[in-house]
Amino acid sequence: MKTVGELSWRIGGPQGSGVDTAARLFSLAASLGGLNVLGRREYYSNIIGRHSYYDVRLSATRQPRSHRIRVDLLTSFEAETLARHALSVVPGGGIIYNVKDEDTPFLRITFLDERVRQDLARVLTEEGVEHTTSTKGLLELAEKRGVQLYPVPYDELFKTLSERFDVPLGIAQRTRNTLAVALSFALLEFPREFLKEALARVFASKPKVVELNQAAVDVIYDYMASSHSNLAFDFRLEGVTQDGPRMMLNANQAVAIGKLAGGLTFQTYYPISPATDESVYLEAHTTYRTREGDEQGVVVVQTEDEISAIAMASGAALTGARAATATSGPGFSLMVEQLGWTSMTETPLVITLYMRGGPSTGMPTRTDQGDLFFALFAGHGEAPRIVYASGDVEEAFYDAIRTLNYAEMFQMPVIHLVDKALASTTVTLPVPDPTQVPIRRGEIFVPEEDEGQRIVKRFSLDTETGISPRVLLGTPHVHHWMTGGEHTEEGRVTEDPVIRVRMHDKRLAKLEYAAKTIPAEEKFQVFGPEDADFTVISWGSTKGAILEALEILEQKGLRGRFVQVKLLMPFPKEIAPLLERRPLILVELTRTAQLARLLRMELGVEVDHRILKYSGRPFSFEELVDALEAVLERREEEVTVLQLFE
Amino acid sequence: MKTVGELSWRIGGPQGSGVDTAARLFSLAASLGGLNVLGRREYYSNIIGRHSYYDVRLSATRQPRSHRIRVDLLTSFEAETLARHALSVVPGGGIIYNVKDEDTPFLRITFLDERVRQDLARVLTEEGVEHTTSTKGLLELAEKRGVQLYPVPYDELFKTLSERFDVPLGIAQRTRNTLAVALSFALLEFPREFLKEALARVFASKPKVVELNQAAVDVIYDYMASSHSNLAFDFRLEGVTQDGPRMMLNANQAVAIGKLAGGLTFQTYYPISPATDESVYLEAHTTYRTREGDEQGVVVVQTEDEISAIAMASGAALTGARAATATSGPGFSLMVEQLGWTSMTETPLVITLYMRGGPSTGMPTRTDQGDLFFALFAGHGEAPRIVYASGDVEEAFYDAIRTLNYAEMFQMPVIHLVDKALASTTVTLPVPDPTQVPIRRGEIFVPEEDEGQRIVKRFSLDTETGISPRVLLGTPHVHHWMTGGEHTEEGRVTEDPVIRVRMHDKRLAKLEYAAKTIPAEEKFQVFGPEDADFTVISWGSTKGAILEALEILEQKGLRGRFVQVKLLMPFPKEIAPLLERRPLILVELTRTAQLARLLRMELGVEVDHRILKYSGRPFSFEELVDALEAVLERREEEVTVLQLFE
Amino acid sequence: MAVETKPRWTVKDFRAPYEVDWCPGCGDFGILNAIYQALAQMGVSPHETVVVGGIGCSGKAQYYVNAYGVHTLHGRPLPVATGIKLANPNLKVFVVSGDGDSMAIGAAHFVNGGRRNVDITYIMFNNEVYGLTKGQASPTLPLGLQTKSLPEPNIQGNINALMLAFTTGYTWIGRGYAYNIKQLVRLIREATEHPGLAFLEVLQPCPTYNNLHTKDWYQGRLYDINEEGYDPVLPPDADDATRRDLYARFMEKVFEWGDRIPTGVFLVNRNLPTFEERIAERQPHYRIHPPALTRIRDDEGRSLLDIQPFYEEHRAR
Amino acid sequence: MAVETKPRWTVKDFRAPYEVDWCPGCGDFGILNAIYQALAQMGVSPHETVVVGGIGCSGKAQYYVNAYGVHTLHGRPLPVATGIKLANPNLKVFVVSGDGDSMAIGAAHFVNGGRRNVDITYIMFNNEVYGLTKGQASPTLPLGLQTKSLPEPNIQGNINALMLAFTTGYTWIGRGYAYNIKQLVRLIREATEHPGLAFLEVLQPCPTYNNLHTKDWYQGRLYDINEEGYDPVLPPDADDATRRDLYARFMEKVFEWGDRIPTGVFLVNRNLPTFEERIAERQPHYRIHPPALTRIRDDEGRSLLDIQPFYEEHRAR
Ligand SMILES: Cc1ncc(C[n+]2csc(CCOP(=O)(O)OP(=O)(O)O)c2C)c(N)n1
Ligand SMILES: Cc1ncc(C[n+]2csc(CCOP(=O)(O)OP(=O)(O)O)c2C)c(N)n1
Ligand code: SF4
Ligand code: SF4
Ligand SMILES: [Mg+2]
Ligand SMILES: [Mg+2]
After folding, report:
1. Which of A341-350, D180-189, D233-242 has the lowest mean pLDDT?
2. Best interface-test mutation with D: which of C112, C170, C313 has the largest number of D CBs within 10 A?
3. Is 80 exceeded by the pLDDT of residue A33?
4. How large a percentage of chain A has pLDDT more than 90?
5. Inside any domain, residue A445
6. By CA distance, what is B313's nearest residue in D?
């Protein structure tokens, strides 16, 4: 019996060769056919040539929440993909590959890391296959394990296409991505109409291209029907009917649209992976339509560096514009001085921080959660800020609105943590509703009419909460000053010890006010039964994998609870009682288990186990199932997850 | 009976008017007379005009370790000093002031903060004196409290001087600082010879000036003898004989000389208070003599900003130069990205961080310890570094050598924490011995002769400690690469998950190695009896005030122990047993009790009480005596120390 | 705002009611006075005026002007001012910055600011030293000179600020002198009335640290190039030859230093659109709803965004 | 090192044994080849050579040279290179940097580097885009141009790199082209042999993102100014007129763009001492014991510092 409607598909190839387009086509077609989709992209910090791959997980019944490390169907253009991923394919799964690649020596795959070559040779040797230094051995082993092999004569197919439709071979070759996708869908017996529709959408502006590619689909379906049997292949897809419209977004897009929904009118950026795409998206959407039919929008400025980006956004914020910037670790490191300034001047500002592998340049296109402590304590002196983390793409949308609200409500910088994993995770999701999170602007000073010109106490100490109404630059009848120096109520520099203490208290009091004001459900989320057998605690992009892992463990009789912390500063002390069902297990994409240390510091709570991954790749739920079992059954204190070929 | 040989003296005046020179003369003369000296300077972020003052504490019997808030003798040039400090003078103490200032309305003192005016008026009203809005009321109150008043007709004295020595009045007025000092010493009956010698030293290059000022001393001593009685004045100083030579240094100078002793050959800086003076000192001492009689030295570069400062120093360090930079909060904030780079590339580098009031521009010339958490976690990703704090000027010297050693031994950045308080604390101390801390350079790769040219594994993973021998740029026969990206053993960028994990582990392992290697006595210091009634924990510049406060409490029967943490990263876990004598009291110059949170995080230890000061001014031992009593007797959980007129 | 012929605000109105803490005799006082007069003459009101300062003695100037004053970080006044101006183009935005603030730590912003031509008046106080950190050499102090605050002669070369402004695209370039207030007022007005990024260098004696280029030293060396007939305007229809001629004259003047030191307006280029105009060209709504003045929620506080077009763009089914 | 007439190292020796990951057809390949050839021709050995890269496609060049390679942070190669060179002046130090690396985030270092004149060869790969971040406009892309990677025409103006180098004091200024390797080798050699900070801009097609200024586009537009008789050398005894004449010619050439694009050596100024010479003048021991080569401890590992003079200076009693 075949598995129907559940699949993990992987496609790989050199950067720039269209892996993304193929994955997009695959995802869109599947989604048009009613399937729920999650895509995950892995790529190098490189423009053309190095290996990138894309995992697409499909489900007819529910929204997948994380990728899988075990691949059901692998589709490859070239030898490197075979080398890196053939070992990941499950028995009963399949590998579609170019016949030309069936015996490529690893040494000829120039970008294959020496370490990978060695480990491949080792595994192949251990498994006792004959060829240990070329793709041949991999295919041999795959077959031995029950993986179905589908060698495809790509070149011949291009030729057929070229001849049949009378286009030059070069043009025919451009259908490579469509080919790869069509081969997969044909094997999966998925109706070709969805792919054709997807092609029509993706290449909407180029009818010729659509036509040729749609024709290619037919060629491929025919070819598969005539040349390969999928009898022993364990997977099948069919179109299903689902309720309600769905969009397909990654977190870069979700945050961008969320910011627009949240009233963002000024965004600055300096290009940096994996944050750039958010700003470039905004640049392409500077004008939007309101529900009332007007045109308005956002000014996006590409600055000369991140220092300028945050400084410029701060300036805009002073006038009352909702302002934000987006960056990643290295850029955030440069923003730190101005971050302190916005805190000191009580300027509302959102910094969307896309975490990537660190420290330093680290791994620009790989994921990590290592910036947590830095976000909490960045900047000299004691500078209040809010640190807020999204757990998935949908949250990222609503959190983009929320963080803009927090910034203005509490008059301080908000660091919105997302990561590379979310930025390159594309999911199907219900159309988000911008009106769901009301826009809150905090206290704003309104002048009396005709009161002449006077100096106003922008930083009035006459406040319990620490909030003094903001006086926006340009407010008539009044003026004031602002400074990163310690200051008086009028915003003038002072070194008076008493004023200093009152102002410092006032600024820090706002954190307590925020802790009181932000509703619990925005601070953290709890999943699973109250009387669980264990508790998992985590934050950020690990959410999806954890939730799926807990479901599987539950089926195995291990009932877990998951506490997802969203607000990391001010820390929600009210989670303490939720952590009582022991063992308490931290899941985090770091080496040093930062949230565990934060729990100790904030709550005096000690976690019992740590499950960590810091290879730059996100958790899959499968890894977490294994790791949680190791923890629960074998009582391992710390489990480090690492895949050899990821 | 007069108190002999113990005194706290204060002089105030507008910035630029010579308060520093006066204090220097006073300190030097006292020291020449065998007294032990501690000077403390408070000043505005301003060049000329705003109020600055200088406290000098003298003792015939021991080295004073902190300033006092209660003043025995106040010397003032002008009304603002009276306004700000008259209330601090102890009964039996004295105030020397210009007769002209005896009835200056507070409103006419232009730089007097409105808050100070109000509080003065309030205090004077509460005390029931007649004049509540001018210096007159202050003098009235002082007298009522038993403070001796010594009005001095400065102008007449200048005239006398001008006439007697036939110099223009303008020149005579330049002796103002000498006058102020001489008035004080005369009142204290301190032999005038010491002051004359001090003058000869300070103005060594200007014999004419020496002559006139020495003459002025005589004029003043005569004037005091004839015009004022010091009968009711409770203090007296006399020359005493002491063993051994003494230097007079502040921490800027101690660190600078310590760095030279530690073999520093490359220093970069961008001017910033209160760090600049260290680098300017080095600029004036680029060439020094070795014990072997050679001339060598240090290259000091003033860069265009702090980013360049740390980047340039990093570059120098790669070649094997011992390199450092010095800065303060805002500059350090800008250094953060490159800090991560040095950590990632395992480059030894010392950053001397002079903490000042934050956040942001904060209070550039006031002290603070608020940068602790930032120093610990600065930079995105998980980047090992050593954080080390000095407790006093003498430590600062030896720690400058130590931190240069640590940087090279553990191949990582070292943040050496000092603060504005130490930078402007000048003490007499025994001549430091540069050979006391041996210079350690860590493991350095030495090439084989004539091995041709080969690529070398600079970041060899073949190490238990995490240390791979450094290959200095320029080492013959070999080469390699370095990068802030994750890298292979040869230093080439990699995104391989397995190498990534091994390298990340290796780098972090060095912290454990450092924790094992650094001897306990360098990590922390313990003072006081094992069976104490309470324990004080702190770090940095609070040391002096704490030690003195504990001595006084001991006399009152309260026996305390003090644990001074010097190594803050990696945190010395071995201090946990030392904290068992409860209550455990944190003393810190912050609002948020950072070390308390760190203890919770690192050791799971909870402090019982917190004594905090965050007005930008350092603790005096008197404040700590009071606060500790409040804590010990009244069980107050948190005591915030704040002086109205500091 | 109603159009008034007689300005409503006087010099007195622009003088902030607080003590000034510059050194006696500092050139900054002259610049400040010129700012007061220029503001009063231009008839802008305090609440429409934003003075953005860097860090330094110069960066205190905004405290002394009775208008919105923003004290930024060292080197960052230009980007902050840019954000303010772009978000609310109705405001008159001034930058007051030191030579260190502008050309050392702030040089990347200075250089890239020229690429944008935002309508800001940039006044650089050039005293050749870092005043507020006690007299170190700034990027405008020539190589080999030794002011009294330096332990050794200056080991780094200097940058010609006017030349740098020219190279990086500033569209109005001028130089004044702190003690020639009459000329300075005119220059500040012209710079402010110029639509685009105007750079005004002010030669500013620092009696405390710069004992080389003092008031006395400048005395008799300064002259006004415009009075001598120098025409700074790049005509709208300038051909290559005209342009080259102006550039050559410009270069000739900016490198002049010593016995004769030129001041005045060196360059006026109205041929480049301002950044604001470029934005409006891309997104016409900018003129009506600049960022500070965009309504972002309805009366119930709900987002105004119509999600439909985004759905269409990212439609999965 | 023994003096050899025939260089010991060949192009092959300088080629690092690793795969290059630039896009096919990238201009960077040409520059890299020119570097190999120049190094081989100059006869320096790999261990004396340090190539310091910024971040970008350009900033990968150092990985492909078989010599010490330092991959710094975005915008920071010049300060790091400066530290290396000043600490060990025996090394030959190269900077390889992109146009974004140099003139956007690194502009403050670029500008202030000119004030120092450290003996470094600065090669800027100018492709007018941010290659490694997928084709955004860099500070050298002119206003209004729209490469295929931009959603809208470029809204910011461009900076003329040669002009900026001139303005900020670089003492050797040249321009090459990625595909004219023969000329480029000569330029790199001249730049390297020049004692002082040499700035070499290389026009570098980026076939992936810059579809405007491609190899085809450059074809036929480029010419060598030196071949046409342009003399870039500022004579040691240059009077004002000579200097002015050279500056005018320089300006004329650097602003030329379009049908004819000048390459070659634009300026050679040997009249300024290098920073190394300036240091040695201050502290003669620098020549003998530069920072990397100073002995700092005796055989027992003890500090060599004689504390006595410090005691005397700070003597309290
Ligand atoms: C990041 C940072 N680095 C250093 C400083 C210290 N600092 C304050 S003012 C100043 C120099 C000011 O010189 P300039 O810009 O010429 O202004 P001036 O005081 O001469 O008017 C410096 C370096 C700072 N505030 N912030
Ligand atoms: C602080 C920081 N900000 C942003 C980036 C991201 N980044 C990587 S390369 C690059 C631009 C490179 O452009 P350029 O210098 O012109 O080099 P090219 O790739 O064109 O050779 C940027 C912005 C970074 N690495 N560090
Ligand atoms: S230091 Fe110089 S620039 Fe600063 S206030 Fe004093 S005179 Fe003016
Ligand atoms: S993106 Fe452009 S510059 Fe970068 S490697 Fe590709 S072609 Fe070269
Ligand atoms: Mg200055
Ligand atoms: Mg580029």
Report:
1. D233-242
2. C112
3. yes
4. 98
5. no
6. D83
pLDDT above 80 (res B376): yes
**Is D208 in Cβ contact with A304 (below 8 Å)?**
no
For ligand 3, is residue C138 a contact (CB within 6 Å)? no
Q: With cut-offs at 50, 70 and 90, classify the pLDDT of residue C4.
A: very low
Please state which CATH class domain D11-281 belongs to. alpha beta
pLDDT classification of D7: cutoffs 50, 70, 90:
low
Flag whether B111 is in a domain.
yes
CB count, 10 Å around CB of A376? 18
Tokens of A408: 């203005």
Q: Residue B130 is part of a domain; what is its CATH number?
A: 3.40.920.10
Counted domains in chain A = 4
Q: What is the mean pLDDT of residues D178-193?
A: 98
Of the residues B462, B490, B517, which one is the last residue of a structural domain? B517
Tokens 């622009």, residue located: C14
Least confident range of A392-401, B377-386, D235-244: D235-244
Q: Which of D127, D130, D140 to mutate to test the pocket of ligand 4 (most atoms within 8 A of CB)?
A: D127
What gap in Å lies between CA C81 and CA B464, rounded to an integer? Answer: 53
C92-98/C49-53 β-pairing: parallel
> What pLDDT is recorded for position B449?
77
Q: Are residues A633 and A536 in the same domain?
A: yes
Both A565 and A618 in one domain: the answer is: yes
| Percent of chain B scoring above 70 in pLDDT | 100
* Domain regions of chain C by residue span: 11-281, 282-287+290-316
Check residues A141 and D240 and name the one with the higher pLDDT. Answer: A141
Reported in sequence order, the residue ranges of chain C that DSSP labels E, i.e. its strands, are 49-53, 68-71, 92-98, 121-126, 129-130, 136-137, 172-177, 198-203, 222-224, 233-234, 261-269
- What's the complex ipTM? 0.98
Q: CB C23 to CB B50 under 8 A?
A: no
Nearest CA to ligand 2 atom 9: D56
**Per-residue pLDDT, C7:** 56
Res B1 pLDDT > 90 = no
> With contacts defined as CB-CB under 8 Å, which chain C residues touch A314?
80, 83
CATH code, domain carrying B597: 3.40.50.920
Tell the residue number behind the tokens 């008197």, with chain if given.
B622
Q: Which residue of chain D is at minimal alpha-carbon distance from C114? A: D157
Identify which of C45, C47, C294 has the shortest CB distance to residue A265: C294
CB of D206 closer than 6 angstroms to any ligand 4 atom: yes
Q: Would you state the pLDDT for residue A610?
A: 98
Token pair of A331, please? 């850029």
Say whether both B124 and B226 belong to one domain. yes
Q: Does B418 fall in a domain?
A: yes
Name the residue facing C309 among A289, A441, A481 (closest C-beta).
Answer: A289
SS3 A212: helix
**What chains are in contact with B, requiring at least 3 Cβ pairs below 8 Å?**
A, C, D
Report whether pLDDT(D3) > 80.
Answer: no
Q: pLDDT tens digits, residue range B596-635? A: 999 999 999 999 999 999 999 999 999 999 999 999 999 9
**Cα dihedral C226, C228, C234, C236 in deg (nearest 10):** 90
Q: Domain span at residue A462?
A: 454-517
Cα D94 from Cα D81, distance rounded (Å): 7
In this complex, do B363 and A606 lie within 8 Å of one another by their Cβ atoms? no
Same domain, A312 and A278: yes
* Judgement on whether residues A16 and A40 belong to the same structural domain of the protein: yes
Residue B266 located in a structural domain: yes
Asked if B498 and A360 come within 8 Å (Cβ–Cβ), the reply is no
Are A590 and A566 contacting, i.e. CB atoms less than 8 angstroms apart? no
Same domain flag for A53 and A200: yes
Q: How far is CA D124 from CA C9, D44, D72, D199, in A?
A: 52, 21, 15, 8
Flag whether pLDDT at A1 surpasses 90: no
Contact D55 A361 (CB under 8 A): yes
pTM of the model: 0.98
Give the ligand at the shortest distance from the Cα of D132. 2
